[in-house]
Every structure is written in structure tokens, then in C-alpha cells.
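Format notes (please read before filing issues)

Several people have asked whether sequences and C-alpha cells are stored in separate files. They are not. Every record keeps both together, in the order shown below: the sequence lines, then the C-alpha cell lines. Line labels are part of the format and must not be stripped during preprocessing.
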Amino acid sequence: MMLIVGAGVAGLSCAIAAARAGVEATLVTPGVLRPSADAGLAALAGGNTAMAQGGIAAAVGEDDTAADHAADTVAAGAGLVDPRAAHVLTAEGAEAMRAMLAGGFPADRDASGRLSLGLEAAHRRARIVHAGEDRTGAALHAFLAREVLEFVRRGLIRLTERTSLDSLLTDSGAVSGAVLRDAAGHRVTVRAGAVVLATGGYAALYPRTSNHAGARGEGIVQAAHAGAVVADLEFVQFHPTVLAGTGFLISEAVRGAGAVLRDGSGERFMTAVHAAAELAPRDVVARTMHRVLRQRGEDAVWLDATGIEVAGGSGTLARRFPSITAATRAQGFDWTREPVPVAPAAHYTMGGVATDLEARTTVPGLFAAGEVASTGVHGANRLASNSLLEGLVFGARAGRAAADYLDAGGSGAGSWANDTGMLAELSAAASVFEEVPVTVADPSWDLAPTGADARGPNSQIAAVSELSAVSAAVAAGLGIERDATGIDAVRRDCASLPGHAAQLATMVAQSAASRTESRGAHQRADHPATDPAQAVRQGWVARSTPHRSAGDDHRAQFATPLRSLAAC
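Then the structure lines:
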């Protein structure tokens, strides 16, 4: 049986691929996938996917190619993108998008029926597909969920809602299942021949974030606890334009449509920094905003979209960006007539569980897809609107690879063959995980609780306090600009704190400390230059991954340089 944890774009795509392969699969989500009377917006499954305003980057335009899209992806990643991963993403992504369009995906179109493709930062041409204007994520999630629920109705997928991952089970070095926690706090044990993590990233560790509150990296931590290698944790992308005082993101598509950034005196400042101005790579825009705010002692700069309204006529902003219009209005702003205050916020985490191009981790039977994974496709700085595409492409790849692994009897042939000595060169970090006392009497799926959580009535209060302390430390030491003093403070402050958030913060700090250069989303004030020699420094190793040869030999290796790996 395949267990899939998470029901965003990657988890849903994985479940669909598994069902199409005829493999028994169970999809677990902490939210609810099926609409119900008591399911409020906060309980809906999908997390960051359903919240995504930005579109899906795909080379489906008449003047576009997957090769051009791959080149833009590689350029945005500041030298750390695996070109093969970029090729897979863009080539299969274009195919996936065309298949969805043919299947009725409600993409936005102009009056003549042609796709309305948007432009975002660091793309050489307009290639962003939107649906419902600034509600693409919700439209994509609903589109995929309908197919999953049809498979559920037909008995091809088993769906378990309001349930989250507690820990992974291993047997002889391979994943053998998981311990889950239901909404009442009870633990249940699941035996599975393959487990796919699609649990998202960790940007919600930061107090100022655009993310769903659940995006705190639980899957990454539990994978590391099971022995999986993690990679690139120091690369945290800050979205430049989050409505000040809120977690509400103002899509980059607004700047693509012509909005500009101004400082407190009304001056447009990005034109002096980068040729693309407001459409420079996100790390450049966020870093510039951070410096402007620090120099002026202010909390926000100003996003001026009034020119879009003037050029398009009255009602243009409300038509093109209905969700953003409603959100700014709720905060007391009329963005058709005045700029709105924005500031950078933690948005996307490029690091995660290290995988090959088939979503396989270094632990046999464990797969990862979406933001929880580090595939090499984003490098040091994700290209705008590649995240939903990554979930579509690598989620489906995870489903197919896990199905192949099960078909092969779970022999371990689907895992990395680490005969290059990669793991031997990685430092082992101390674990602060609490072992879960679970007795497995029956290897089959059993929803009966194996015992309530007995941590006591004050445990939730303590957990909130611990998370607050971790968030404060992360914000202070692992923000847009870091230095050794701040990074060391994160490790020191989190060392005595229990729980996965503190452990993850420590892992991020360890990665940030070892990269003594500035690259992409990782900006070191004490090491401002990019250092090509980082590839051979202590703690940095070539990443080895298998690929399928004609003889299906999973041990064949190829190297991907400049990836940061750690055994945690």
C-alpha cells in the first residue's frame, strides 16, 4: 500500500498517478478535501496550494519553448539549479498543462478564446497561466481534488481527513509505514510499503509569512529523523510584496501588469538597482526593499498600482485582481487611487528532503514531492510561478516511482545507491525527537486509535510558547540578510527547546552557517560575495542520484554539483 501525506498540488497529483497505475493508495490530509457544512475555510485541505494567487508557469504559448523556460529557471537559481531537473520540470510541465487544458482546466482567456498569459519576474516572456485571475491555486486545487474524489468514489483511493503525520516507521533501514495523529490527538499506526511526503515547506516558522499556518516543515523533520538526507535549507525565498501588517500576498502578477515600488518619499527605487526594476529576481527585489526600509527606519514601502487602473480604465484592478482588491479594501485602502504598504515576508523554502528526479529519497520506500522536497529544480532562488508546476510534475513522478517500487516488492531498488560515499561525508546532527511508543499488532490499515496523547493539559500552551520562541529566533538570525553572529544565536536559542520547530530551525541555521558566501536567497552580510569555490569546501559534496538506464539499473549514478546536503 502507498501512503501519501498531504493534499496540496503535489499530494493530489501523486494520488492521481497512483490510482492510474492501479496501486492501492491512501491519501492523508490534516484538512478536509470533501466539502461539508462544518468545514470552514481554515479546515480546507490544500494549504499553500489553495492560497496561491500566482499562476502556473508553463511553455504553452505559441512563441515559447520548454528550453527557454528551463534556461530562465537555471538563470534564476544562481548557479545551483540542476539543468536536468529544469528540463524535466519545463518539458513535462508543458505537457501536463496542455493535458489539463484539454481536460477542462478553467484557465483565463481573452475575448477571442486565446490563453491570457501573464508575465512575472525573471521570465523572458509571458508564460504564466492563471485561472480565476488571482485565484489560480484554488482553481487548480479544486480541479485536481475533483479527480481524486472520483477515484475515492470508485474505491481506488482511500481518503483520511483531519489527520497529520506524527512520525515515520522504519524496518531494516527502509520506511515501513507511519504513525499518524487524528484530530482528537490519538495516534494511529499505518503499515505501508511506500510513503510519499507532500507536506509542504517551512516558511511559517517565520512570524512574517505569506504561508498557511501549517507550513512548519514537519515532513522534513520526520524524514530526517528516519535517516533521510536533507538539502539546501538555507535558501528561504522572501516574497517582496506582502500587504504590511498581514500575511496577505500581493501577487507578482501585479508588478508584471505594471505596478511599481516607491519609498516613503514617493521615489521609485528599483530602477537604480536592476535593469528589470520591479521584475528583477525576487531575491534582488526583497533584499533592496529590506535595505531601503532599514536605511529609512520604516516598516513598509509602497506598491503603486494606480497606473494599471488608469491605463485599463475604471474597474481594471477589481476585474484582474479581485481577491487583492477585496483584501486591500478590507485594510482601508483604495489601491485604484493610492499606493498600498508592502514589506517582504517568508514565502517559499527551496530546501527540503533531498530527492532524485523520480522523487526518491536516500531512505528506501520514502519519496517526497512539492515544497517538502529538494529536487535541484529551484537552486538558490525559485523562478516565479514554478512551484505549482513542480507539484504537478514531481507529484506525478512520485506516484509513478512509488508504484514501481511497490511492484518490485519494495526491495530497495528504488532508493539511492549511495556507493559514492556521499553519506559518509555528511555530518550527523543530534536528534531531539521524542520516540513514539507504538505497538503494532496488525500491519494493515487500522483507524482505531492506539492511545491518546498523554502529554498533559498544558502541552498546547507550551507548544505555542516554544513556537513563538523559535519564530523570534528565526526572524532575528535567519532573515533576508544573515551573519555568523545571528546564525549562531539561532542555534544557541533553539538548542534547549524541544519539538520539531526548534530542530528544523537548528538544521536551517547549520546550513546557513556552512555556506560562507552570498548566493540567491541566502545573503550573508559578513560574506557578501558569491564564492565559486564553495563547491569543494568542507561540508559541501557532490549530490549523487540514480537514474533509470535501459536495463532499469537504479544504481547508475550522476553527480549534481553545488548542492548543500546534511544528514540530520
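For reference, the curators noted about this record: The CA atoms of residues 467 and 501 lie 7 Å apart. The chain has two domains: 2-235+350-410, 237-347.
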